[in-house]
Specification:
4 strands, elongated, alpha+beta
Length: 119
């Protein structure tokens, strides 16, 4: 039986924001890039696990963004990406989030992407 969970906080940041102190004009960097600002890899899953792991992951990721000078987190277009893969019996791919975690996600405008692959 093999189970793997990868949870990532991803920011969709404009290249000009990402580069920050470039000598060229910022309009030369209009593209977007996805930046993984925090992640965690686990070898177990339960519906409550996400609730437990998301809070510290968000704290680390938001601190990393602020450290890099990204103060307006809504402009970062954050996404929590949850990838679950399991070939074991007994893994129920479900998602449970407390109101507290949902409020934290909403406060920074983060979307949630949950991709379960179980056989």
């Amino acid at each position: 039986m093999s189970t793997r969970v990868v949870i990532r906080l991803v920011a969709d940041i404009g290249l000009a924001q990402l580069i920050g102190s470039v000598t060229q004009r910022s309009e030369n960097f209009r593209g977007k890039t996805e930046l993984v600002v925090a992640d965690i890899k686990l070898d177990r899953f339960s519906p409550d696990l996400l609730d437990v792991e998301l809070e510290p992951l968000l704290r680390r990721g938001l601190a990393a963004l602020e450290e890099k000078g990204h103060k307006d987190l809504l402009k970062c277009k954050l996404e929590v990406s949850i990838h679950l893969s399991s070939d074991g019996d007994g893994v129920r791919p479900s998602l449970h989030l407390t109101p507290s975690v949902v409020r934290q996600l909403a406060a920074v405008g983060a979307s949630v992407d949950f991709d379960p692959y179980c056989s």
